[in-house]
Amino acid sequence: QVQLVESGGGLVQGGGSLRLSCAASGRSFSSATMAWFRQAPGKEREFVAADTLSRSVPYYSDSVKGRFTISRDNAKNTVYLQMNSLKPEDTTVYYCAAFTSGDLRNANSYTYWGQGTQVTVSS
Fold it and tell me: Parallel, antiparallel, or unpaired for β 18-25 and 3-7?
């Protein structure tokens, strides 16, 4: 059993920055691969970012590469998503997830999910 709790969402103007946090419990966080996804109403869940199995090189979707950064603090059992140069199209609910098996970019590879945190970017 893994519990994930996201926080840090809010309203920000285009070009602004926001940092999301995801606190994890229930497993050894330091050995767990974590990822961020996002999903707007009526749309498919979209991969955003994930650390690798070795946690040395992260993966990013093309839409956020160069703007978003995933990081973690193992001492706090927390993974972060630093979002810079935000655009209105980034508006949606963001979820963190704990990897189980499979492709890191596939939502089906993740069993445990947080409740989500809303990010709204105004024009």
Answer: antiparallel
Amino acid letter for position 103: D
Distance between CA atoms of residues 54 and 4, nearest Å: 21
Mind listing the pLDDT tens digit for each residue in 28-85?
Answer: 667 778 999 999 989 999 999 998 655 567 899 999 999 999 998 888 989 999 999 9
- Give the side-chain half-sphere CA count within 13 A for 61: 15
Length of the chain: 123
> 34-58: string of b/e by CB count within 10 Å (b at 16+)?
bbbbbeeeeeebbbbbbbeeeeeeb
Cα angle for residues 44, 60, 26 (degrees, 5° grid): 80
Count each helix (H run) and each strand (E run) in the chain, helices first: 0, 11
